[in-house]
Specification:
- The protein is an all-alpha fold.
- It has six helices and no strands.
- It has two domains: about 30 residues; about 70 residues, HNS-dependent expression A (10k-s Protein, Hypothetical Protein A, Chain A, Orthogonal Bundle), CATH 1.10.890.10.
- It is globular and about 40 Å long.
Length: about 110
């Protein structure tokens, strides 16, 4: 019985390693290039020139930062959408503003 359990566990571990090695081979460009961003130093202008998934990632990540700072563990899509609109308006009005500070003001 013990041998069967050990053999089963070894088989599962090996298959897990094989399946994950294929996923690991697809390393995102940001990881390959060693991308590091100090989001507390990012300006509105830097966010506004981003496009597509890069801007989406920045916005979602920053909302997560604010949720963490506020110890708010609920993702409220309506609240986030409304705050995002406000953040864009505030950033367009002052492109030199610190993005984190704009998020703090918009999310109150």
């Amino acid at each position: 019985m013990k041998t069967t359990k050990i053999l089963f566990a070894a088989t599962m571990a090996f298959s897990f390693l094989l399946s994950n090695s294929a996923v690991a081979a697809e390393t995102p460009d940001a990881v390959q290039s060693g991308l590091k961003v100090k989001l507390n130093e990012m300006t509105c202008a830097e966010m506004l020139v981003q496009t597509g998934s890069t801007r989406d990632f920045t916005m979602i990540y920053m909302h997560g930062v604010i949720n963490g700072l506020q110890k708010d563990y609920l993702f409220d899509a309506v609240k986030v959408s409304e705050a995002t609109d406000k953040i864009y308006e505030m950033c367009i009005a002052d492109t030199n503003a610190n993005l984190l500070e704009i998020f703090k003001k918009a999310r109150g």
